[in-house]
Write a structure and sequence with these properties.
alpha+beta, Trna Endonuclease, Chain: A, domain 1, five-stranded mixed beta sheet, globular
Amino acid sequence: MRRGMGKQLWKQFKTFKQRGEWVELQFMAAASLRGHRVLKPWGDNLQYDVAIEHHGGLTRVQIKSTSLRRGGGYLCRLRHGLDGEQRYNPNEVDLFAVHVLPADAWYLIPTEVVFTPTPKMHLTFYPHHPPRPGRHDHDHNFEPYREAWHLLAISRRELNRRSRD
């Protein structure tokens, strides 16, 4: 499918669970088309949705999506569990892949960026324009991670090291 053709397909799903499964498939297809070896764990009991295998190591990816417009951007909650209130463990996820559905934009963000200096429970993305004046760039500027598919080729250790630089 050509980029942009499925821009509105996400609206057809009746539940967030269905939409989430579809977004996972979209991520796996996009990563595979870029030459990455994608692994899908069986079941829903891990904190990550897929793993990318390279050089004998794994990068664990948690996939999220958002269509929730808030303050000129799109808000994505980084929570899980039955109550939707549990934080992700930075020792169990290496990368967050967030699909901003209305913009058909992927953001691939190292866990280290999300959890330091303080853990974030929500991320806001501005794919159409920069954040409003008064927003702190370090908290809201995820544009460097937009379509950052090259991060999938980096080992877990290197990913964390680069995020701290």
